[in-house]
Design a protein that fits this description.
The chain is α+β, with helices and mostly antiparallel strands. It contains nine helices and six strands; from the N terminus they run ααββααββαααββαα. About 65% of the residues lie in helices and about 10% in strands.
Length: about 270
């Protein structure tokens, strides 16, 4: 996000109150809660329009768990796929392997213990900065009201100082959010080949033709793909849809990751 965009978002945030933000969040949380209870969620994907992700029924859930267990057991016995723990050890401690007869060092610092700790620390830092920003915002709104009633040099200087501090907090929150997304993306990319993630993907592939629906203009629903073969022949966007569906199965609110109507994609 560019500095000018951060400033625009900052101005909007300053004009909002904590109570109004809470009302909006409560409304969004209520909608998400209803979707969770129904076991389904809508997401808009450009080129596919509205898709419905449904939670598999009990019988299919058990079959999916069986697929996961069989895949994991088979590859554990064959010892041909690394587990997440093994990959962590490789990424944290460099090892030497032979590539075309040459020694190549791999795993050096790709995912360190520091990365793992940082992934846990960032949300706490965001909460702290948000709390500080909210405190400044309340003070700024009160100072602006005071200045409307009676201008005072001391009050204006205090307002300017609080504005600077609030903007610094808001900028830090933006940077922390970006750092968090980058770390999450890095972790997903590094561990997507792990035994656990590969087993999970087998389950996702099995569920998808039954649980991902395309919503027509009249509100009727049809399976997005009739079977796994058609799904695997779909365009590159299908990979993104399957990734989002995998997150949905883990309890993530995937509507945030969809495309905004009007041609812009959420970042």
């Amino acid at each position: 996000m560019k500095k000018e965009e951060i400033k625009e978002e900052f101005k909007k945030k300053l004009n909002e109150t904590i109570d109004s933000e809470k009302e909006i969040q409560d409304s969004e949380d209520s909608k998400t809660a209803e979707e969770i209870i129904r076991g389904s969620q809508e997401v808009f994907i450009r080129g596919y329009d509205w898709l419905i992700f449904n939670w598999p029924d009990v019988e299919r859930t058990l079959e999916g768990d069986d697929i996961f267990a069989k895949f994991k057991t088979k590859h554990l016995r064959n010892n041909d796929l690394m587990t997440t723990s093994q990959l962590k050890a490789v990424y944290n401690n460099p090892i030497t392997i032979k590539v075309d007869g040459k020694d190549v060092v791999v795993g050096s610092g790709e995912w360190t213990e520091k990365d793992e700790r940082r992934l846990e620390e960032i949300p706490k830092e965001i909460d702290e900065k948000t709390e500080a920003f909210n405190a400044y915002r309340v003070e700024i709104q009160e100072l602006k009201e005071q200045i409307k009633k009676r201008k005072n040099k001391q009050t204006e200087e205090k307002l300017n100082k609080y504005m600077e501090n609030a903007f610094e907090c808001y900028s830090n929150i933006t940077k922390l959010n970006l750092e968090h997304i980058e770390l999450q993306t890095k972790r997903i990319n590094l561990f997507s080949t792990s035994l656990e993630e590969r087993a999970q993907f087998e389950k996702v592939k099995y569920y998808a033709p039954y649980c991902i629906m395309s919503k027509n203009g009249d509100g009727t629903l049809n399976p997005l793909w009739k079977d796994e073969t058609e799904m695997l022949k779909a365009d590159q966007t299908a990979v993104r849809i399957l990734s989002l569906f995998g997150l949905f199965l883990r309890g993530v609110d995937v509507s945030f990751f969809g495309d905004l109507l009007g041609g812009q994609t959420q970042s």
